[in-house]
Amino acid sequence: MMELENKQSQSQSQSQSTRSLGSRTCCCGKVKLPPKGSTKYIKFYTLLIALLAALCLSGGLYLLFQYLLPSIREADRFVLTTGTVIRQQIIQLNTSHDCQHFDHTLWWDDQGVGTKQMFFHYVSNGSATSGYDGGGGSADSADDSSNSNSNMLAPCYYGITTINVTLKSSSYQPSLVGLSSSNYNWVAGYTHRYVVNETYEFYVDGQLTTHALWFHPRLYSHATMYMSVMFALVAVLLFMLVACLAVHTRRKVTPIPNINAADSEQHYTFGFPFIFNAQPPPTHSSTNVVNM
Which of 153, 178, 173, 150 is nearest to 163 (CA)? Predict the structure, then answer.
């Protein structure tokens, strides 16, 4: 009896092992995967890779049509023209906020057509280390209602340059608003760089003439461009992998009926079988030997 039970347990373990080799399941335990190395196995993962490639391609197209192309079209609206400086102003704000808080309210920073780095390079003739100070008052002091006097507020300055331009036989007077800073000399430096009654080149929005810039607007965000290119490259690589797997699946050897394996040889070229007989073909000519 013991031997019979041992044999039954061994047969059960062998059957379970063969089942595990024959079919596999996902981590969820509900979806059965085809046997590894089979045609269905390759097709299954080819489909998964194709779906992943489609997702990457969709992400790249989304960034392209949602951000890159609209940004480029918006930048193309700006035209280079000459304008005369007619007025300069330096505005002082006593506030408890950081001066950089007002920089985010600028239309060219909010819409992404300009950046602080571009302003530092083209307008203030330097970088953030050349005198720019985005500091200001403390928000903690503003929360204390008992200290509401003006001594608890710090000043922030920003410059405004008003120009006169002519577009399509019409005259416009857009204002160029610069960055805010607690450093008055830094703001006065970039404001007075453009002298009143002098003519300079500016970029003006042809559709919204109240928007003007000192520099060419940014075409697109470099981070968005890099992400869209990365999605596109990954999608191309995945589609190439799908094509390779599809060719490999098509080239897999399948038996051809009614062919004796001992008498024939199968060659597969580009997925199509070509059968060559191993034995030489029979000859129809015969020679009769007559014994004299």
Answer: 173
